[in-house]
Amino acid sequence: MTDPSRYDLDRHAALRLADGSLAPGQRAAAEARLCAAATGRQALEQQRRVVRALRAAGPATPPDLRATIAAQAARSARRPKRLRLRARR
Description:
Elements: H1 4-19, H2 24-35, H3 38-57, H4 63-78
Helix pairs in contact: 1-2, 1-3, 2-3
């Protein structure tokens, strides 16, 4: 039977390997360990798919933030620009 803590470590290693956050000195060993077993290869491939999808989607902007920015832009477009003149001393 597989040790559950080992599975969690392998998933963690797969995630860090897939997203590039694993230290360079640990990459080769982690990839070899993951690729040695079918479950490790599956975990690594799944994490690579997730990372690719997240990177392709780009940063997510919350809808309420978009609405706030659009409202501010509309208000500033309606408001005429005022120049403030300073008195010379």
